[in-house]
Amino acid sequence: MADTLISVDLSESPHTNENVHNRWHPDIPLAVWVEPGDDFKIETYDWTGGQIKNNDDAADVRDVELEQVHYLSGPIGVKGAEPGDLLIVEILDIGAKEEMNWGFNGFFSKQNGGGFLTEHFPEAQKSIWDFHGMFTSSRHVPGVKYAGLIHPGLIGCLPDRKMLDMWNSREKALFDTNPDRTPPLAALPNTQSAHMGKLKGDERDKAAAEGARTVPPREHGGNCDIKDLSRGCKIYFPVYVDGAGLSMGDLHFSQGDGEITFCGAIEMAGWLHIKVDLIKDGVSKYGVKNPIFKPSPITPKYDDYLIFEGISVDETGTQHYLDVHVAYRQACLNAIEYLKKFGYTGAQAYAILGTAPVQGHISGVVDIPNACATLWLPTDIFDFDIKLGKDGPKKYLDGSIDIPLAPDL
Amino acid sequence: MADTLISVDLSESPHTNENVHNRWHPDIPLAVWVEPGDDFKIETYDWTGGQIKNNDDAADVRDVELEQVHYLSGPIGVKGAEPGDLLIVEILDIGAKEEMNWGFNGFFSKQNGGGFLTEHFPEAQKSIWDFHGMFTSSRHVPGVKYAGLIHPGLIGCLPDRKMLDMWNSREKALFDTNPDRTPPLAALPNTQSAHMGKLKGDERDKAAAEGARTVPPREHGGNCDIKDLSRGCKIYFPVYVDGAGLSMGDLHFSQGDGEITFCGAIEMAGWLHIKVDLIKDGVSKYGVKNPIFKPSPITPKYDDYLIFEGISVDETGTQHYLDVHVAYRQACLNAIEYLKKFGYTGAQAYAILGTAPVQGHISGVVDIPNACATLWLPTDIFDFDIKLGKDGPKKYLDGSIDIPLAPDL
Amino acid sequence: MADTLISVDLSESPHTNENVHNRWHPDIPLAVWVEPGDDFKIETYDWTGGQIKNNDDAADVRDVELEQVHYLSGPIGVKGAEPGDLLIVEILDIGAKEEMNWGFNGFFSKQNGGGFLTEHFPEAQKSIWDFHGMFTSSRHVPGVKYAGLIHPGLIGCLPDRKMLDMWNSREKALFDTNPDRTPPLAALPNTQSAHMGKLKGDERDKAAAEGARTVPPREHGGNCDIKDLSRGCKIYFPVYVDGAGLSMGDLHFSQGDGEITFCGAIEMAGWLHIKVDLIKDGVSKYGVKNPIFKPSPITPKYDDYLIFEGISVDETGTQHYLDVHVAYRQACLNAIEYLKKFGYTGAQAYAILGTAPVQGHISGVVDIPNACATLWLPTDIFDFDIKLGKDGPKKYLDGSIDIPLAPDL
Amino acid sequence: MADTLISVDLSESPHTNENVHNRWHPDIPLAVWVEPGDDFKIETYDWTGGQIKNNDDAADVRDVELEQVHYLSGPIGVKGAEPGDLLIVEILDIGAKEEMNWGFNGFFSKQNGGGFLTEHFPEAQKSIWDFHGMFTSSRHVPGVKYAGLIHPGLIGCLPDRKMLDMWNSREKALFDTNPDRTPPLAALPNTQSAHMGKLKGDERDKAAAEGARTVPPREHGGNCDIKDLSRGCKIYFPVYVDGAGLSMGDLHFSQGDGEITFCGAIEMAGWLHIKVDLIKDGVSKYGVKNPIFKPSPITPKYDDYLIFEGISVDETGTQHYLDVHVAYRQACLNAIEYLKKFGYTGAQAYAILGTAPVQGHISGVVDIPNACATLWLPTDIFDFDIKLGKDGPKKYLDGSIDIPLAPDL
């Protein structure tokens, strides 16, 4: 068996674990070292570090401290890795921690992060998803069961100083255009609850003050939340610092394209079994700016879909110019309306779109002024027939079950 | 064999054909009538009505008159269809006209429509794609061959007066925010080259002045340019007028998600074999706003991909807020840089992304401030090995062939 | 458009067409010549040459003259092809003849050919399948619709004299072990209704007396009836004579693995668009004995199945030793019993297994004394839910429709 | 986490474990009881009970005691199950035992079981396959790597007395037709090394003398060796005794259709996570004789193949009548010859066909006198390009590595 190089103890705070960090900074010391060609296991906390519990009360989602996210395991040093190399990461397997055989999905309160449809679902809600081997289902969302397309929502290498500065300055510039917005336009460096791995003392404080938040995806990959970056994938990451400094976390049992619920996919603690290797000078050889990856030969084959279209006219009827974000939102809202006809509440339908392996396609981006996006809902995840027929929909759910909601205080 | 209800003669101007129109307006008389349950064939012009020729000169793309687009065949009346019904359209087959066994792809000049990457490719270029049964290849883009995922770029029902007015007013409002922009923010009603089917005289002139352009996708579907809306699909269209008034055109032999080259996919003249039926009162039964469809059981199974990530930081380094359009543009630019390492020119790489069955996924839309989009490039369409290796890329092309360019005059 | 090199007139007897033949013999003159790299079209009769009609009477199936089969179009000469080469045939497209937009399936009388389940279905029956673009359905078998996986049941190159002699002698040896058997153990050369293409006079008579029947698959490919050898495939055929002499016919709109109904798949007249090329000396380079092929990138993706097992204990309870033929027969019989629970007659169920894209897998061939075979029945071809549930099957069919039967005279 | 109801200790003989047995007999006491709807884990030995070691010496394969096989875990009692019910088994997950992260494949000596190609590979050989997460590769077979399609080779319910008697009598009848054959025609009851679970004393001895060997698949399923009966499947088993008595074992990490190497697939010890339920009276409701199953939504998508044809003319040139076994053997031999052109030894090629997810299709079974079978070899499992080209094959292997062989003593 491959060795476990980084372990996590879910009964302990991630802040007690020196091989964990929650900010990006080149000064974070490498936690462990491996050779190119090695394969090994890495354990991770769930992204919130255990803030969300397996119960029927969404108060923990409402009250989550987002300054803590995301707890990453690493950085892993790869011997011989130098800036300009490509780090090859092959995901050989991923799984849940035995002691946490479930995951959570939720919508943040609009006052604390919000989400893609926060105008429609402004208060905190939470659903719990149990894992049954390779499948998942939820006591809060009856009638659906999915095979997991397990993946790390967040994985990438440490930035160098120059890249870190660039991230901070461009995000600050955006933030400053509307500093009072809720939710904010960007998550800027913040020392609150910063965890800088093995870094201590003044160096730690300085790095915490500068360290980029882990929230957005960036040039190094990071929090891409790509559902297809799953076990069996081979990923090519740009290297910026000696040793590469690969970190990862934010495991998802299953997610839809867009991770529209934000909190998030089906979030879980777990482990990855990975193999690393190098393409020396690969960044210039292949002209790479962001990571490139090859998909897995094993993925759930949900091949029958209902496909919902959306265009870039928003809910108020206002026309936007080729705005795919607006178009995808409309496609999602259209799917939610459809699912409600079968008895789901809006929140349940939203949770399905956030957790099931739905596809979100950029279908047309040139036909002024409307972008067209499509939301692909797999029909085989439902216990009942979700397709259209001449007789109209048959209600499958009686409305007795809903996703717990925790009103803003 | 199914009857051909609408024929087109490619040697004649579409304006001579009363069963063709290029504007959306409720007053356009229904061209033909069918019963629910009927199947039949409809021929169509290419979207430009024959303006682009099979030669090595892009002047026709540069000089295209966009006021003419799109020439649609219809409107087809379906007996018994009433506002609020869903019109089921099953695409039983699609093909090219025997006398035009080729298609074209191009980039418009930035001064005349532009495209997704118009800042990078500001001048008109054109590639010609020959059809070899179910495959296509181009003398201007060596090294690739695709199986066609043939589809109508544009299909939908006539709007009623209320919907037409809504379209016109919201698009006008957007246009007015920057009326001098090139390309414009919206294509407003324009009598130049308007073709209103059987409508004549004053009624024709009035409708031409009000008729919505066919450029954008809208509530009725229309110019969605969804590559997966291909033969074998079943589509459910909202009906707004008695008889439904279904029109279609803008056939594509193959296209990538986004139709990023705008002119367009691999554009062709051809025919569709369709079957129609009704779900009475289906709009309210299923809560439908935009069309819904089920994908075909037969599609090209290109299952191995290189997946390129892009985030919503634009080419200048400016940070945008969850802008999927910017993110997808970066993913496309990343793929183009990659393909150039194998010897393709930028224009050839752009043409591949516009014409091959690439997927564009909305991968993350909540991780502020960056959206993440992915561009999936199928590896099996290339005659050579396009994957990454330790030795770096091997140039497959010697640069002797490029896509013809017609400089702005 | 590609040229049609061989045309057939379905209103005329195939015996009037010199570019058609129904025996394999090296002396049959090449009908047309092409160059390596050429693509072109070839029309074909249905395998019986039009003996079966679109009506509700199976008498034509009962009375079919099997000495006539199979009418092949060719042989096509490929310039430069020599014995020992591999002939590459790419199937660019296949379709039905416009004037015959339907096909037939049947079971022969046990007295005239029989079939896989002839003990269970000893008399002639026939179903007619209409083509609706890429789909087919039958007025004799309600409740199913398939996308076609169109393919030539029969394609291959002329044998040389040595190979012909080998075929004739080994098949004669088998036949002689039970010469009175009905149906016979092998179809030996037979001058009755032999059609030798352009060959005339004594040479014709001599070749007709020696010519191998087209019934079995052999080293050259021939009547393989492989459902996956469909449009989009690339096939590598051994060449035995100068010019290769490629012939083809027996087109099928759709077929299950095994072609268990024998008459046959959904049999049709039609055309192929193919491209040919050569690998010089390919037979020894690659150690090829029988043809090798690569599957198409476009095939129907029926991915959900009910899988029926069968073992090599026959219907009487007798144990056979690792006999896959017996095992597959049991799997088929098991599927038929299952389908009868939903209201199908046995004959309808048998017709479905013969015509739908069912898979037949050799699942275990070493576990003495039982072979295990599996029959994969796609669930998505049914208009209703064919899966198992706690409540038991719901009859979908009322038994009012069956497949016409023509009793033996 | 689900409870592990049956554990195995690989360092102990399976004969010390009362929840294991290696014969089928209705008198074997149920090992554990569960309720319908329960999910739980079951551990299993490898099929030989640990006789084969991870080394480079095939002597253990040569000297294997086949009277021991197969060690099954069970029988599991399901409360309420009665004869005539269908037992639903959902395979939620399968994995290797941590302490045995490898598997073996081998060919038995012809004198001790042989295999599908025993005439060509008459002596014992063995290859060891290491597991790397979801992938496997072998130090004895360079150049290939597969994603596992893990499955139990053997699973089924206890027979009742009547079924047991039927098995024994029909297999004895076959055996008696050639009692001296090596390998034998059937594996008859044999007390040597029989392990009857909890059964003790005279009852044990009597049952051991009557108990059916586990070698062949039978009506109850049993040793079907169906590669697609993998994690994610749902299987419907006939129930013959009160409590059903479900047993399972013979786990495979990966296998080709036919399990042609007999010893066997990639054989492993491991665990299954399953869920059970009942369809009362399901046998008659659905007309079930052998198990039926639905495939998993997650399987390796190896979609590009080289497909080899074989016909029922054997290696000596003798014609057989519609014998799929002979035809598949020819297809396999054809694939082996092809692979040798790339540098593999025959034994390596044979091992690949036995362990990789190759498909074996029954392609034509009615075209007298030849059956046609096809062997589908996935091209993406190879580290190099295995496809045909004009230049001929390039040797990838230098012949320095082969599969260990242990000559007969």
TrEMBL record, chains A, B, C, D:
SUPFAM superfamilies: Acetamidase/Formamidase-like
Stretches for region Disordered: 178-205
InterPro entries documented for this protein: FmdA_AmdA, FormamaseFmdA
Gene3D superfamilies reported for this sequence: Acetamidase/Formamidase-like domains
Annotated GO MF terms: hydrolase activity, acting on carbon-nitrogen (but not peptide) bonds, in linear amides
Alphabetized PANTHER family for the sequence: FORMAMIDASE C869.04-RELATED
Name this protein carries in UniProt: Formamidase
Annotated organism of origin: Donghicola tyrosinivorans
Lineage, uppermost ranks: Bacteria, Pseudomonadati, Pseudomonadota, Alphaproteobacteria, Rhodobacterales
